[in-house]
Amino acid sequence: MSEAFICDAVRMPIGRYGGALASARADYLAAVPLAHLPKRNSDVDWAKVEDVIYGCANQAGEDNRNVARMAVLLSGMPISIPGATVNRLCCSGMDAVGMAARASSPLPPISLTARADAMRYVPCASASARVSPSFLSASDRAKAEG
Fold this sequence. Notes:
Peroxisomal Thiolase, Chain A, domain 1, three-stranded parallel sheet, alpha/beta, Thiolase-like, 28% helix, 3 strands, acyltransferase activity, transferring groups other than amino-acyl groups, Thiolase, N-terminal domain, Thiolase_N
């Protein structure tokens, strides 16, 4: 088995609830680091990328598509590069890295991994979210029940 190396890291844009990125789609935000990696690493043959694997914990709304594949297309990378989206909830990004590290190619593959979520669809971050009564104290349950 070949070894895996993390050769570069690019931080995706971070927003806050209701902030400037609230209406931005996760695949659009996911394309940003993919577009910048070739600029930062001009010596890499980007046509040799074998896979792009993104973790997306809550595939809802426009995130219900293949976020990784859409990010490849939006980033301007070669359209021959496939993309896979993994949902392991909070561990989605780490699982994407693990999947790339376990690639069984005889030569070390070039795989890109990341995590992308549009938090407006995550129930705990949504303004319309309802908390399960089991998480509330007895006094808070009484207030919620009116």
